[in-house]
Amino acid sequence: MDIKKRLIIFNTITVVVPFIIVCLTIFIFMFVSSKVFSTNISYDNFKKLAATKFELINAVKDVSKLNPESIETAGFQEYLYQKLSAINGEVIIIKNNSIIFASKDITKIDIERCLDEAKTNSIKKAVKIDNISYMVETSSLNFKDSSTGNIILLAPLEKSMDIFEKFIITIVAIFFASFVAINIFMSYLFSKRILKPISLLKKATAEISRGDLSFEIVESGDREIKELCADFEGMRIQLKDSIRMKMKYDDNRKMLVSSISHDLKTPITSIKGYVEGILDGVANTPEKTEKYLKTIYSKAEQIDIMIDDLLLYSKLDLNQIPFNYEKTDIAEYFDYCIEESAPELQKSDIKIYLKNDLKEAKYFIIDRERMRRVILNIIDNSRKYMNKENGQVTIMLRETNSSIIIEIKDNGSGIDKNDINKIFDRFYRADLARSGTKGSGLGLAIAKEIVEGHKGKIWAVSCENEGTSIVISLAKIS
Ligand SMILES: Nc1ncnc2c1ncn2[C@@H]1O[C@H](COP(=O)(O)OP(=O)(O)O)[C@@H](O)[C@H]1O
Ligand SMILES: [Mg+2]
């Protein structure tokens, strides 16, 4: 729910609920008063009260319209009496503090009370005379002999009408009390719904600023707050990623420095040795000099390859080179790879075959150049670590429901089962490889980066002295 909607609902509740409470109170009040106290607080009673008041006020108006002469006439007094008798009313006319007409026996004290009550501002001016409650209306009179007086009009109030007024006051009080109570309650609920998620968010941001980026921000509360939490969470993840990336950069740099110093030192040391040999005149024949120079050249080449591999690996590892995917004919592609590697293999007397068991799949989506590097690297390893006379490399293609499997199998030296999991690590070279053949120890690490860049998998199966299979699985085109 969004804050706007919640605000509308809460405000509606604050108005509607007190209204319902008031209605219920009215209902209960009416029910109890009619059943228990047998007083009827009905709309009729309300009408009756209003009518009585209206009659009294009308009668007062009639009096004020009259000229002073007629007030003292018996006709007028009779007219008033008749008019009020419809509501069982009484009329008292006072001149110079003495009663000149009274339809009811009334004491001087009661007259004073009536006059006092009439002066008050209350809505319902009432006095109790002889245990009967009357509604009072008065009007001052001017007689023709210029003496003054008052006219007092009384209308009896029923007991239920008395209760009626109290009832109205109670209802108004209940409405205000419930309105205030519900308002406070709703404001509390509303603030809780907003403040709780905000305090969680505050805690999370405090944790983040303290450097704890693993503190997950859980979305809670209303839509707007949830969106805010989601944005913060996005920010946290991005921050975490960038820190991870930075750490990886640092790690890579450290690794590069240490590997350069370690792996490049060996060929450089031998280059230095051979150059010294030439300078010192150890290579004293043209043949020897040529041999030395060739060795220097090959060591320099080795350094060159290593640096190239290092740069490529570091770029791949940091996802700096975009992949250029193309839909490629599988069989055609491997024919081309075989064609390219065949001359090198031929030099070492190694034969290469393609065994295509693909039935449905004809195409796959790859970055042709990068995948070529992977395949040629694996084939080159097979060549480098071949220890048999009749060397053989077979590329086997097959498929499962969802993948294309490429297996490059050789009958070379094989890999020790303790080393098999390490060969894809950067700079890993088995002792044998380290001592003899050229290489950076990055070939398979680069292959792994590239295959994983294709969302594929690469692994090795090997039997020492029997041969090695490097297996790649790539997703089929759906
Ligand atoms: N076909 C293979 N037969 C035997 N050993 C292999 C084969 N392929 C890879 N290896 C082992 O895995 C190591 C890592 O290979 P790689 O990353 O290509 O590095 P490099 O070829 O530069 O040594 C090699 O040094 C070698 O010990
Ligand atoms: Mg290699």
Low-confidence stretches: none
The CATH class of the largest domain is Alpha Beta
How many structural domains can be distinguished in the coordinates? Answer: 3
CATH topology of the largest domain: the name is: Heat Shock Protein 90
How would you classify the helix and strand content by structural class? alpha+beta
Supply the CATH architecture of the largest domain: 2-Layer Sandwich
The helicity comes to: 55-70%
Radius of gyration: 54 Å
In short, what is this structure?
With 478 residues, the protein is an alpha+beta fold. It contains 13 helices and twelve strands. The chain is rod-shaped and about 165 Å long.
Verbal overview:
Keywords: ATP-binding, Cell membrane, Kinase, Membrane, Nucleotide-binding, Phosphoprotein, Transferase, Transmembrane, Transmembrane helix, Two-component regulatory system. GO terms for molecular function: ATP binding; phosphorelay sensor kinase activity. The chain crosses the membrane at residues 7-32, 167-190. With 478 residues, the chain is α+β, with helices and mostly antiparallel strands. It has 13 helices and 12 strands. The chain has helices spanning 3-35, 43-65, 68-71, 74-85, 108-119, 159-209, 223-263, 265-279, 286-317, 330-347, 368-384, 431-435, 443-453, and strands at residues 90-95, 98-102, 126-129, 132-142, 148-156, 326-329, 350-356, 363-366, 391-399, 403-410, 457-463, 467-475. Strands 2-1-5-4-3 form a 5-stranded antiparallel beta sheet. The longest helix is centred in the middle third of the chain and has 51 residues, at 159-209. It is rod-shaped. The mean pLDDT is 85.
